[in-house]
């Protein structure tokens, strides 16, 4: 008898039999999910979990925002373009108009928008290629604990040895230097400037200096405004372009649309992805200063450069959340709540401390085993949350920015209860 397609299949054996061992998040979050709305995910077994992962910041506006969903359904039901290569479409025009009006123009940004393949790594690859073409140089300066993707060019700029080990060959074209506050007492910006200024400093003249202002996968290391501004000045002084990777830290995650706002810098190139679509649909792009818009037609190619369905939802996201300052004000209040509750967590654990900025925050608990145990127990209590850092030692909060305050508080209650349980078990075992 044919299976009733309206009845969810709760058998997860197919994943073990057929899905590659490269699968990751599902190992620590083993529920078979069937639906989601706002900041709650629901399993096929009827279970509910508050989502503090948000698609690794790809769902900044939550699951299935009703206005974006309605616009997308209307577009599809009206035979709107589903795939348009890089042709002119009404949906792309509407997105670009909204992005220009509500994002670029108010911030004094003259950048062109280059649509790349649909992943953040593809946007990073494009940015690196542009910098190399503009300057005629090949070297890219990146930073310790940076994460920019796992395709070959982006992987060379990624610090994590586990991911670089997956390349199967040597990665090239990148010089890595210490990030802000990487080593106690070290002025990393001054060191970089000195090495670039010294003919025997050992760093080839760079095409670009690339960084995240908050290193998401690297452990929520947040650069100071002074450091970011110093790096921007160093890039200019040494003839390099400044690439600020806002793939995870952008779209409001740090409290402003861009993570570098109010830092006194104007990047040459800004790779963006994750929450650009607003709906979890694949969409990536690079913001490019006009003088650096040097690619010829299709020189950085891709069949899916620009996702027409994502243009529909992205336009709604911008108009709904960024047409005035109300959303930013709401984010500031939530950021304060997050800091207060994470301080409670840090106070439970000797030596633990807060990391990150805005709504991209976490607590370094000192070790990956403890952080993993806390997240596992929190999941059992109804909260989806993950770790980050070079040793997975940071309990990392990436709740949807739209999470209602009461639900946000409930999520933290689960997290703090989980930490108490884990610590009590640990003490009992000792």
TrEMBL record:
Catalytic activity, EC: 2.6.1.76
Entry annotated with the keyword Transmembrane: no
A GO molecular-function descriptor: diaminobutyrate-2-oxoglutarate transaminase activity
Pathway per the UniProt entry: Amine and polyamine biosynthesis; ectoine biosynthesis; L-ectoine from L-aspartate 4-semialdehyde: step 1/3
PROSITE patterns attached to this UniProt entry: AA_TRANSFER_CLASS_3
InterPro entries listed in its UniProt record: Aminotrans_3, Aminotrans_3_PPA_site, Dat, Ectoine_EctB, PyrdxlP-dep_Trfase, PyrdxlP-dep_Trfase_major, PyrdxlP-dep_Trfase_small
Keyword Transferase: yes
Gene Ontology BP, a term: ectoine biosynthetic process
Pfam families the UniProt entry points to: Aminotran_3
Cofactor list: pyridoxal 5'-phosphate
Uppermost EC category: transferase
Family membership noted in the UniProt record: Belongs to the class-III pyridoxal-phosphate-dependent aminotransferase family.
Protein name in UniProt: Diaminobutyrate--2-oxoglutarate transaminase
Species lineage: Bacteria, Pseudomonadati, Pseudomonadota, Alphaproteobacteria, Rhodobacterales
């Amino acid at each position: 008898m044919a299976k009733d397609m309206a009845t969810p299949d709760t058998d997860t054996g197919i994943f073990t039999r057929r899905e590659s061992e490269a699968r990751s998040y599902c190992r620590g979050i083993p529920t078979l999910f069937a639906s989601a709305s706002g900041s709650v995910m629901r399993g096929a077994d009827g279970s509910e979990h508050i989502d503090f992962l948000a698609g690794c910041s790809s769902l900044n506006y939550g699951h299935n925002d009703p206005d974006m969903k309605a616009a997308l359904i209307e577009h599809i039901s009206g035979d709107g373009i589903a795939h348009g290569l890089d042709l002119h479409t009404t949906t792309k025009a509407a997105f670009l108009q909204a992005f220009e009006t509500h994002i670029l123009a108010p911030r004094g940004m003259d950048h062109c928008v280059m649509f790349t393949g649909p992943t953040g790594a593809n946007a990073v690859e494009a940015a690196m290629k542009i910098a190399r073409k503009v300057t005629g140089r090949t070297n890219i300066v990146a930073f310790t604990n940076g994460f920019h993707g796992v395709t070959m060019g982006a992987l060379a700029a990624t610090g994590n040895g586990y991911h670089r080990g997956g390349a199967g060959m040597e990665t090239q074209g990148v010089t890595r230097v210490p990030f802000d506050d990487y080593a106690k007492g070290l002025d990393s910006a001054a060191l970089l400037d000195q090495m670039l200024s010294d003919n025997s400093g050992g760093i080839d003249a760079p095409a670009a200096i690339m960084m995240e202002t908050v290193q998401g996968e690297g452990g929520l290391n947040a650069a100071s405004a002074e450091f970011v501004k110093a790096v921007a000045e160093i890039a200019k002084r040494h003839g390099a372009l400044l690439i600020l990777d806002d793939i995870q830290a952008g779209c409001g995650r740090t409290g402003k649309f861009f993570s570098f706002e109010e830092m006194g810098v104007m990047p040459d190139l800004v790779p963006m992805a994750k929450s650009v679509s607003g709906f979890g649909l694949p969409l990536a792009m690079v913001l490019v200063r006009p003088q650096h818009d040097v690619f010829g037609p299709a020189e950085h190619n891709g069949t899916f450069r620009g996702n027409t369905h994502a243009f529909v939802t992205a336009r709604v996201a911008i108009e709904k959340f960024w047409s005035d300052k109300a959303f930013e004000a709401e984010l500031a209040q939530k950021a304060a709540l997050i800091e207060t509750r994470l301080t409670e967590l840090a106070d439970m654990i000797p030596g633990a401390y807060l990391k990150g900025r805005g709504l991209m925050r976490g607590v370094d608990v000192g070790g990956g085993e403890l952080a993993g145990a806390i997240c596992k127990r929190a999941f059992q209590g109804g909260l989806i949350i993950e770790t980050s850092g070079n040793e997975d030692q940071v309990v990392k909060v990436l709740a949807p920015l739209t999470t209602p305050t009461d639900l946000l508080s409930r999520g933290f209650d689960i997290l703090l209860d989980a930490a108490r349980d884990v610590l009590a078990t640990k003490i009992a075992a000792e």
